[in-house]
Amino acid sequence: QVQFVESGGGSVQPGGSLTLACEASGFTFEYYPMAWYRQAPGNERELVAKISYDGTDRNYAASVKGRFAISRNNDKNTVYLQMNNVKPEDTAVYYCTSPQLAANYNYWGQGTRVTVSS
Fold first, then answer.
1. pLDDT value at position 58?
2. What's the pLDDT at 39?
């Protein structure tokens, strides 16, 4: 059974930092690109960052480029999102998944909530 378990969310002040983690199971993690998405209240879910199966290629949404960093540890079946210099507009529920598994089978985690406010 494919599972994604996100953790690390919470409340943080503007300009602060937070690290999200997502442990995956039920598939061969090292073969699949992974991604972080987010959904703010009233908005559609959007792609935040994506990483290739071996971690050599990374892509970011324009809104987070230069502030967020995606990484992965294939030995631990885990993908991370380091969030620096966060802004109130980063407030959302953050989800991780494999884009292929999400598109073909609609597999998503339960998400972890990030709130940025002073």
1. 98
2. 98
